[in-house]
Amino acid sequence: MSVLLLGGPTAAGKSDLAVELAEQHDAVLVSADAMTVYRGLDVGTAKPSPEILARHPHACINVREVGEAFAVADFVDAVDHALRRHPRVIVVGGTPFYLQAMARPLASLPPADPTVRAQLESLPDPHASLAVVDPASASRLHPNDRVRVIRALEVHAITGRTLTELHAAGPRRAPFDVTVAWLDRAELRTRIDHRLQMMREAGYVAEVRRVLAQPGARATKPLRSFAYRHMVDHVDGRISLDEALRRTARDTWRFARKQRTWARGLGWEPIHADAARGRAAACFSTIGDG
RNA sequence: GGCGACGUACCCAAGUGGUUAAGGGGCGGGUUUGCAAAACCUGUAUUCACCGGUUCGAAUCCGGUCGUCGCCU
Questions:
Q1: In A30-145, where does DSSP find H-type helix?
Q2: How many CB atoms within 10 Å of residue A135?
Q3: Which positions ≥6 away from A115 have C-beta within 8 Å?
Q4: Closest nucleotide to residue A47 (Cα to C1')?
């Protein structure tokens, strides 16, 4: 079994290369992208076209409705699933947290529970509560880091054990044996701008209107992401289309920088497309251990 | 040309005599163990247009210069 992890900042050209490599090496594709999982979010997420998806199915694309939950573990499960059915897998995407979960497996933690979480959200001082049940996590987490403080509390509420204990128990599985290809390119900023113009022409605004028509969509995770929040402001009449696109371009670039930061932290050196092709060839020519 | 207002970081902006010059945006750096395109942390003006004066002490008061804006001629 061989897994190629094809990552990189947004707009680096991962998708096209992934399809090319899948075809060349007869590999199956798993998307590592927290946004393209949603049906109906096509333009803003730069999702591969329906034609490409029909010809080269990607696991984890179009698997949820806007508003439905999807988490890292769902992604990891999808990689496992693909691996059980096919000897060659290409994981392609730019969500660093998902990619990292392959190299550094998650601990055995329970899934999020909306009911429990809602109760914890109403605590007057979650961080103080955490300091009581799990002092180690409390001291590690900044009091303002509400998301993680609540999660630590949630883990304890559900399992009766602390996050600290569960982390100490080690990962739930061995890391995936992956060949990493972190694709990057110098002219990323220009590509982001160009892609945004293409999105505009491809019906970006219409897509936002369509999604917004679904009840409750406005408050969902993907619509609060940088690809949609500014477009929503435009559709609501608060800012012009040009301004919305300007802010989206700015935030997209900012995201790309974050992705690079993550890659640095994981020790993934940026390479160009040709080097990535070479790495793929090496990855898929290796004789696995069965 | 006259009168008036203003000039604080890349941008917006608080501060109108006394500790190391608020805050926000942007930009940079970082964290990330089931919301991660989210969330959080953090750095970013030895100096207030410039020159001189008053004062123990000035971004704050006074004079001049330059600049911007408004009104008038």
A1: 50-55, 72-85, 96-103, 114-121, 126-133, 135-140
A2: 12
A3: none
A4: B37
First vs last C-alpha separation in chain A: 7
A148-CA/B44-C1' distance, Å? 28
pLDDT tens sequence across A182-240:
999 999 999 999 999 999 999 999 999 999 999 999 999 999 999 999 999 999 998 99
pTM, entire model: 0.92
Opening angle at CA A44, ends A182 and A220, nearest 5: 105
Find, among A6, A39, A15, the residue nearest to A191 by Cα.
A15
Instruction: Provide the ipTM.
Output: 0.92
Can you count the helices (H) and strands (E) in chain A?
15, 6
- The CA–C1' separation of A144 and B46, in angstroms, is 32
Q: Which helix (H) or strand (E) holds A166?
A: helix A163-168
